[in-house]
Amino acid sequence: MIELRNLTRHYGEVTAVNDVSLTVQTGQIAVLVGTSGSGKTTLLRLINRLVQPSSGQVLIDGADTASLPVHHLRRRIGYAIQGDGLFPHRTVARNIATVPRLLGWPKSRIDARIDELLALFQLEPAAFRDRMPHQLSGGQAQRVGVARALAAKPDLLLMDEPFGALDSVIRAKAQSDLRDIQRQLGTTIILVTHDIQEAVQLGDRIAVMDRGRVLQYDSPAQILTQPATPFVRDLIGPTERAFRLLSLTGIGPITMPGEAHGTPIARDATLRDALAECLWSGRDALPVQGGGIVTLDALRANAAQDRQ
Amino acid sequence: MSPPAILVAILGLVGLWLPLVQFKPNRIAAGDSLTLAAALEAGWPVALGLAAVLILGCLRYWSPRLRIVAAALGIAVLVLSLGAAASQLVGPDNKLARVSPASGFWLMLLAFSLMWADGVTRMRPSLRASWLMLAGALAQVAALLLSGQLADVSVMRELAARQDTFAHEARAHLILAFGSLGLALLAGLPLGIAIYQAPRWRGPVLAVLNVLQTIPSLALFGIMIPILGWIAATLPGAGRLGVSGIGMFPALVALFLYSLLPVVSNTLSGLAGVPATARDAAAGLGMTRAQMMFQILLPLGLPALLAAVRIVLVQNIGLTVIAGLIGGGGFGTFVFQGLNQTAMDLVLLGALPTIALALVSGIVMGLLVDQSRATRGQA
Amino acid sequence: MIGRLLLALAAAFALAFLLSPTSFAVLFQPLTRNGAPAIYTQASLLRLTLFHLGIVALAVLISTAVALALALFVTRPVGREFLPLARTITTIGQTFPPVAVLALAVPVMGFGTGPTLVALILYGLLPVFENALAALTGQPAKVAEAARGMGLTPAQRLWQVDLPLALPLLLAGMRLTAVISLGTATIGSTVAAKTLGEVIIAGLLSSNTAYVVQGGMIVGIIAVLIHAGFQHLERRAARATGQTD
């Protein structure tokens, strides 16, 4: 469990982060979202003390981190940044081995870990181990960057706009891969993004930041349905929020017995997918693979229920 | 038709028409200038052969490789012609007569060197091929010099008459140029790292080093003599450490001072040029300052550092010539002796090895810079 | 601000010294031994300085004109084939030691100011050419596209786009050349060129440090002033064309 208590950072007159307190449960993804200059990146860097807090505390599993030497603290916390930040003079394997080597792991354990991580990120170990960073595509480099951050099995992974340099198709894939890997490993993640869609898709909890303060820290559904301030409402986009909300829930709960015509929809599709299919094919009901149907009425009823 | 090759051909043909050698019955007498065709017994066929290579080289379908081979052959024939002309003109046992290369020789040498450079540039050789070609060129030069074919050319005669002093001055030249570089690295690297860590000091330190570089080399060499002499005389123990106002030491210190600016400023720009993301990642992954410096910043700054070494080495090999003027030794000794006695062969004896040394050092260091960039993906 | 003040002081000092060298004898007296003269009087220091500056200015102007013409030639369609070769020659040419070039000019030109001028011109070509080339080839492709798209003729593009944008880098090349030439010109006095090197060499020959220092000092101050002057021009040119550093 990660606890931030009254974290504040001043730069001269400017207060970049203003009295932020929030808690991230073990195994969850917390997303810090806000416009540029909102203090979200500074808040992230306060956690691994790349920026020293002016005041406030960071607790990991109840222990204050201020007493640890910074480099020891950082070796326990994974760190992945936009545009990967790979060391251009080191092979993929050496890059991933950075923290384990700093921690003095035996070579055999490091090698095994490298192969394990490469495989986890769908990079064939034999082909990628000895490549140099400039021989990787953007998506590959981004995955190596995250693998490097996870190498020493950190308690916590910090990610600063990790998908910022990727094009939209690769980004969607990288996001769902991250979600899968995070579930598999149970890593706690704090991720910074300016993209509300990314926040809604990845976050168990979302912290909306503006001018150094956290305006709202809630589940995605809460943020979408009960925005705490006008700023939050503007950020989520009033015309988009119905669709964002639909994309949070699978069709499972509203699937009912029955028969319908046409191409069936996948069992793990979201409500948004179902609505889109109804509108596009002009049908009031869709068959679901493996039995049952989803109806336009049920979708509408569900949305109305969310609004309350 | 290839335009650069046409330029090469014009230069070469003008060179053929100009005198290849200057022949003097003795050192003082007025000289006689002879073209290649006139100076050699088999002059006409050789001249026609060279002209044919130059003209055929204009054809566009000549491959870069063919150009390089033709240029290397042309240079070999040219140099051997010079040697043969000298032997034939001087004759055996004539100790007084002198044959020196004249404008035609230099122009043709330039033409074939350009042909070589043109071939190499078009070939875009890999690093490995570049090293091989450099080795080949050096082997060719060494073979020509050691063949004894040039023994009667006046520069080689000067060399033969001064073999011991030549070896001595060559050693002095190398010690001065490389020694001052070593000292500059020892002092300049830590200084560059220090001002990288403490940005407040960058302005003042670089300003001082900049002013140091504007002092004309001649004056800096000269001022070192009294300053170091005074230090050696007044500071106890300084003399025993080798500090001295005469001989090599003042030159060494002057060259060292000149080398500081490039070493310090390139160290700084190399470190500052490391991508911010790599630095951020290194800190975020938990490297200490020392680990970041030695594992990330210095390895990534290496190309800039090697570039500094290249600049300093080339600059110092050239400036070391001035040491000859203040009794510091080196090839400059021959240059200034020659200028004083208006003995141009002696000037050449000092100038040619200096140029060759600077050229080879520059190329070797340039290749090392490219190599270090290639392995870092900064091609 | 302090920098400007120091420059102005240095300039004033150098000017006063050149106009009336003997008034400063007291300053240089401690550097002499056995009652040797403190100030060089075999020739007027002012005249030597003017000669020195004249040679350097002439060399810089000629090398700039030639280098710019060459750079323009190899970046136009007619000369495009020379571009790679020109790059190679520039890199290699800069490794030639200026002193050796000077020494080699003597057999061709004889002693005097001539060989110095030739060596300075040849040596000065390279930095200007390199910078002019970098400026002319380093332009954003968009600019060239836009200029072509708006229907500028090649000549109009040259005068209205290429040259103004290249000016700051060109000036930087001239600065390098001028500072190198100032120093190298002193060595010219070893082949009997009339420059301030004469004072330094006289000092070396007679072990009179006062001469070495006054010769070196004047050249040094002038070099710093020229360096600063060109940098000022470069900044103005860069601002005028919107290329702020």
From TrEMBL, chain A:
The answer on whether this UniProt entry bears the keyword ATP-binding reads yes
Q: Which GO terms describe its biological process?
A: quaternary ammonium group transport
User: What Pfam families would the database entry show?
Assistant: ABC_tran (PF00005)
Q: Does the keyword Transport apply?
A: yes
- Which InterPro entries did the record assign? AAA+_ATPase, ABC_transporter-like_ATP-bd, ABC_transporter-like_CS, P-loop_NTPase
Superkingdom of the source species: Bacteria
Q: Which SMART domains match?
A: AAA
Quote the SUPFAM superfamilies the UniProt record gives.
Answer: P-loop containing nucleoside triphosphate hydrolases (SSF52540)
Keywords assigned = ATP-binding, Nucleotide-binding, Transport
GO MF, one example: ATP binding
**Residue stretches spanning the membrane:** none
Q: Domain ABC transporter: where?
A: 2-236
The record's family statement is: Belongs to the ABC transporter superfamily.
According to UniProt, the name of this protein is: Osmoprotectant transport system ATP-binding protein
**Organism for this UniProt entry:** Paracoccus laeviglucosivorans
From TrEMBL, chain B:
Source organism per UniProt: Paracoccus laeviglucosivorans
Q: Which residues cross the membrane?
A: 42-62, 69-90, 96-117, 129-151, 171-196, 208-232, 296-313, 319-339, 346-369
- Any one Gene Ontology BP term: transmembrane transport
Q: Where is the ABC transmembrane type-1 domain?
A: 170-365
- A Pfam family the protein falls into: BPD_transp_1
Instruction: Work out whether the entry's keyword set contains Chloroplast.
Output: no
UniProt record similarity statement: Belongs to the binding-protein-dependent transport system permease family.
What is the topology of this protein in the membrane according to its UniProt annotation? Answer: Multi-pass membrane protein
**What cellular component GO annotations does this protein have?**
plasma membrane
Is Magnesium among this UniProt entry's keywords?
A: no
What InterPro entries does this protein's entry cite?
ABC_transp_perm/SBD, MetI-like, MetI-like_sf
List the PROSITE patterns hit by this protein, alphabetically: ABC_TM1
Chief location category? membrane
* Keyword entries, A-Z: Membrane, Transmembrane, Transmembrane helix, Transport
Q: Where in the cell is it found?
A: Cell membrane
The protein in question is named Osmoprotectant transport system permease protein
TrEMBL record, chain C:
Q: Which Gene3D superfamilies match?
A: MetI-like
Q: Source organism's superkingdom?
A: Bacteria
As for membrane topology, the entry says: Multi-pass membrane protein
Q: What is its main location?
A: membrane
Membrane recorded as keyword: yes
GO CC terms = plasma membrane
Q: Where in the cell is it found?
A: Cell membrane
GO terms (BP aspect) = transmembrane transport
Q: Cite the ABC transmembrane type-1 domain residue spans from the record.
A: 49-230
Q: Which residues cross the membrane?
A: 49-75, 96-126, 211-230
Q: Which keywords annotate this record? A: Membrane, Transmembrane, Transmembrane helix, Transport
- In its UniProt entry, what is this protein called? Osmoprotectant transport system permease protein
Organism (species): Paracoccus laeviglucosivorans
